[in-house]
Write the structure tokens for this entry.
Amino acid sequence: MEYHDSAKAKEVAGRVEDFMEEVVLPREREALRTGELISEKELHECWEMAKERDLFAPQVSEEYGGQGLEFSDMLPSFEQVGRSLWGALSIRANAPQEGNMHTLEMAGTEAQKEEYLRPLVQGELQSAFSMTEPTDGGGSDPKMLRTTAIKDGDEYVINGHKWWSSDGYNADFLLVMARTDLDAHPYEGTSIILVPTDTDGVDVVRNIPHLGGHGIVDVSLGHAEIKFDNVRVPEENLLGDENKGFRLAQLRLGGGRALRHRIATAETELHGARTMVRHAARELDESDARIEVAMAKMFTANVTNEIMDLAVQCLGGNGIGKDLPVAHFYEAVRPFRIVDGADEVHRRTIARHAFEDVDDSDMQNVVQFDPALDETA
């Protein structure tokens, strides 16, 4: 497939591919094989190698230490780093840092760019985007945002509760979404404010245990729970225009999920699975019920996986977090399609049975090629 990438995009992606093959992937395979995590020191050494090869922070302008690539020219390189668990991190193009850099470069004042953006690009600072709140706050529906930043003289006073602030546990500063005009609709009354994590009243509560949270790099990334109790920051920490935070963040909100219909389907499939298992059990009282058991195992294992995936999706952050048992169940049910006979084994058994009683007479009226018209006959 030809994607018509520019010559520059292809050239940079080629160098990124070499970096992945020569540096990143070999260390990743070693870490996965031995369990020896990639240290923070190794990560910084990797960054220095990426800088030497002009691969570091491709999404940021050269003025601040990046490569200054256009977005479309970044994509082939991002595809290359996507081959590795720590590929994006290895060239400082990982979320949420990449997005935070872009936001700062787009909306920050010159003073903010010097204080926050330049050291962020170089890996001297870590940041987190702090928007998502626990139930009943803002999440998939950001109109429910409850964290506030009320002006008091030349300061903002922030109160609120966030979680899933990616990389927040060791962040040096946060980009905090907070309501600054309580009389306006949240879309028109919310701002982004830069908050250093050592500010009085900022409580980084914990790194939330979550699905897939193990990683191979010995750096505390994860997703933090953070509380703000009368946190005061100067008004010059406002990022962009006041009350334009949603526009700045360029939130991409999905449409309605029609969950009632999906749950109805799940209930129907569960009923089918229960019925199939009961039928197989009755047949086992009379015979080996080989086919019935194969069908029940395959169907039920797949339904279980699909419904646990739906449960995770419905719960959002609570689905992949491990405060609830859903993420644990999600991990536990995947082997169902393998243990006690893989899907493919059961399908083979069922298919073989399906062809045992084929009546060839049903095929007698099928039109076949007339051999009299075959020149090779």
